[in-house]
Design a protein that fits this description.
alpha+beta; single chain; Rossmann fold; 6-stranded antiparallel beta sheet; Topoisomerase I, domain 3; Topoisomerase I, domain 2; 21% strand; 36% helix
Length: 720
């Protein structure tokens, strides 16, 4: 290339830029970019350009007032993020260089990546032509092939318009609804286009659980020929008892059905991001955000393909590389048996839009697993196992249903065992045997007894009667739905509104694979949802604040179905089947109607401000100390006294500021602690913590030992 033919390549982040630069020969490092071989390679740092705040349109918006709503910009203002202003300036200078004749858009190949580049391009008022690098892998060969097949950037104008619509719709809904409800109810109530419907699903689930009234159920069981069989459920105890009395008079039960059958379990589909996040949560306890972060890191290390995908299939042009990839992956994990490769099972062009399913790259074969962080190792194992399983033979499950009839009542028993492991064998080899989450509780039988049961069935003849033993009645109760885990919530988000949409609808649900994790994390971060449970299983539970918000939210804001409909329309904008102006008009009309028609719910103050538990008397001013979310503080707003739940002094002892500890300190001024642990020596010891307060109303803690030794520290909180 001549000096006048330099191309400026803009990636989404420095690490990606470095990978691209290495492949295309831009090996000379400058401040904020790399240069060489006719290319300049630079980068954004996430969103360099972002939507401006309302006060940029009018100073009056600095204060939140109901009368100023709705805020609907006719022309949208953007601003440069303060933390990234330097990199924006670098990009601007590079774009304006006379020797740069064109640009290559190398941000992530998706909606957000498109938005990141276009906002910078438009903010600079650049008019130079640009091409699009569209790749699904950061492998050197994929980058090289991508540069050989650069596309006209204008082919992605609809994708950009969809991204703009999503961003601006979120701003309109979030900004207006948050100000509306905050001013009406006198406190900050964060509202979001996707966040609030997601919260509504969590709140609704908890309401169903809390309102659930268990109903008694009754089943009869008999033993016959070494097999225990159960009747259908009885809702009425008297009806069950009548049959039980008849059974006690009977001597035999007749075999009325023996139905053996082989059922095939087809190989599973490849992973989309949501499917991967669900399995990682179910099997590994990872949050959706953790899984996305691990997978993104693996992508940037060239070990997996692009993670933000809804697809679970590969394209036809990939079919030829699949056998070699499968063999390399099996060898990497020490699987010595012959690997079955049915590539046709994972190929479907019609079900791949922007990106294909997530699969490992050939680079995994040479990767040092031990050098990867533990979380990345586990996620990579899941992705690899799923690739090999998806290519494998069907598993064959032998199922035998047996029916007995006695006292005009049918009793059933069922046993099953895997006769041919098929795809399960290699999956189990890599990640271990996992419970089949598709089985219902009724079908999740004790597999240890399957062999004995099959032997008993083999000895039976259909139509014959066998001695009846041990008839009895089992009492139980109906159970409510389970609390949401991230696995089940992601599934619910993916399926939201599906029943109300045509079967052929391409994208159902709320949010996208790329955004659902962030939505869940934001709900937790702002205090609407909290994670509860043990290390293995965490449940997503609404806080009082979250329940209160949904209680006052109107249907159009909290409806998962409406939000799912919007997501589909955004996809239609992306495909050119729906006008962006029409989408934005619908959003503006909805917000305008909400502001005009919403009526404050009476007595909502009770919902917003729950009674707080008093745990003691403030040592500084004598008023009550109450429990709040982050600590135990004085109810007097003018008093600074607080005992923080995340307390550095107590954490250094291996202890927590529990409610009982706080009560003891407030009552006695001291608390005895057993089993404290020294960080330096690892030794444990018992001590007494004595509390005083200084002139600034801060708690001061002193360790008192039997020998009179003491350690001192201020009871400050850990920064959050």
């Amino acid at each position: 290339m001549s000096e006048k033919n330099i191309k400026l390549v803009i990636a989404e982040k420095p690490s990606v830029a470095q990978s691209i630069a290495k492949v295309i020969g831009a090996d000379k490092r400058e401040d904020g970019y790399l240069v060489g071989n006719g290319y300049i390679v630079s980068w954004c740092v996430g969103h360099l350009v972002e939507l401006a705040s309302p006060e940029s349109y009018d100073e009056k918006y600095e204060k939140w007032r109901y009368d100023d709503l709705p805020i609907l910009p006719s022309q949208w203002n953007y601003q440069i993020a303060a933390a990234t202003r330097k990199q924006f300036s670098i990009l601007k200078k590079l774009m304006e260089r006379e020797d740069v004749e064109g640009l290559v858009e190398a941000t992530d190949a998706g909606r957000e990546g498109e938005l990141i580049f276009r906002l910078v391009y438009n903010q600079v008022k650049c008019k130079k032509p640009f091409e699009r690098l569209w790749i699904s892998s950061m492998e050197d060969q994929a980058i090289s092939d991508g540069f050989s097949n650069l596309r006209n950037g204008r082919e992605y104008d609809n994708l950009y318009q969809a991204a703009l619509c999503r961003e601006r719709a979120d701003w309109i809904v979030g900004m207006n609804a948050t100000r509306l409800f905050s001013t009406l109810y006198g406190q900050t109530l964060n509202v979001g286009r996707v966040m609030t419907p997601t919260l509504a699903m969590i709140v609704q689930r908890e309401a169903e659980i809390e309102g659930f009234k268990p109903e008694p159920i009754y089943r009869l069981s008999i033993s016959c020929g070494g097999i225990t069989a159960l009747s259908d459920r009885f809702e009425n105890k008297q009806d069950a008892e009548k049959i039980l009395n008849r059974l006690k008079e009977e001597k035999t039960a007749q075999v009325t059905k023996i139905d053996p059958a082989d059922k095939q379990e087809k190989a599973p589909q490849l992973y989309s991001l949501t499917a991967l996040q669900r399995d990682a949560n179910r099997y590994l306890g990872f949050t959706a955000q953790q899984t996305l972060d691990y997978t993104q890191s693996l992508y940037e290390k060239k070990l997996v393909t692009y993670p933000r995908t809804d697809s679970r299939f590969l394209t036809e042009d990939m079919e030829g590389m699949i056998p070699n990839l499968a063999q390399k992956m099996a060898h990497k994990f020490g699987f010595t048996k012959n690997v079955q490769v049915h590539a046709e099972q994972v190929i479907n062009n019609s079900k791949v839009s922007d990106h294909h399913a997530i699969i490992p790259t050939v680079n995994v074969a040479d990767a040092e697993f031990g050098e990867l962080p533990s979380g990345e190792q586990k996620v990579l194992s899941l992705i690899t196992a799923r690739l090999l399983a998806a290519l494998g033979d069907a598993a064959v499950r032998n199922e035998v249903d047996v029916e007995f009839t006695c006292a005009d009542t049918v009793f059933r028993a069922k046993t099953k065992n895997i006769r041919e492991k098929g795809w399960r064998e290699i999956q189990d080899w890599i990640i271990g045997s996992k419970a089949d989450s598709t089985d219902s509780e009724e079908e999740n039988e004790d597999k240890r007894g399957n062999a004995e049961m099959l032997a008993c069935i083999a000895a039976m003849t259909n139509g014959r009667s066998y001695p009846l033993q041990n008839p009895k009645m089992e009492e139980g109760k109906t159970t409510p739905k389970k609390h949401f885990t991230e696995d089940s919530l992601l599934s619910a988000m993916e399926r939201a509104g599906a029943d109300e949409m045509p079967e052929e609808t391409e994208r159902k649900g709320i949010g996208t694979s790329a955004t659902r994790a962030a939505t869940i994390e934001k709900l937790v971060r702002i205090g609407f949802v909290e994670r509860k449970g043990n290390k293995k299983t965490k449940y997503l539970m609404p806080t009082h604040k979250g329940v209160a918000l949904i209680t006052v939210m109107p249907e159009q804001i909290q409806s998962p179905s409406m939000t799912a409909e919007w997501e589909q329309k955004l996809l239609d904008v992306e495909k050119g089947n729906f006008q962006d102006t029409e989408f934005m008009s619908e959003i503006e009309d909805m917000i305008t109607d909400l502001v005009k028609t919403y009526k404050v719910i009476e007595d909502a103050e009770v919902l917003m401000h729950p009674a707080m538990e008093e745990i003691g008397i403030c040592p500084c001013c004598g008023q009550h100390v109450i429990e709040r979310q982050k600590g135990y503080s004085c109810e007097n707003r003018g008093c600074n006294f607080v005992l923080w739940k995340q307390n550095r002094f107590f954490e250094a002892l291996g202890k927590k500021m529990t409610k009982q500890t706080a009560i003891k300190l407030l009552t006695d001024g001291k608390v005895a602690l057993k089993g404290c642990k020294s960080k330096k020596t690892g030794n444990t010891y018992d001590t007494t913590v004595v509390m005083t307060v200084d002139e600034n109303q801060r708690a001061i803690f002193e360790l008192n030992f039997e020998k009179g030794e003491a350690k001192y520290g201020k009871g400050k909180s850990k920064k959050n």
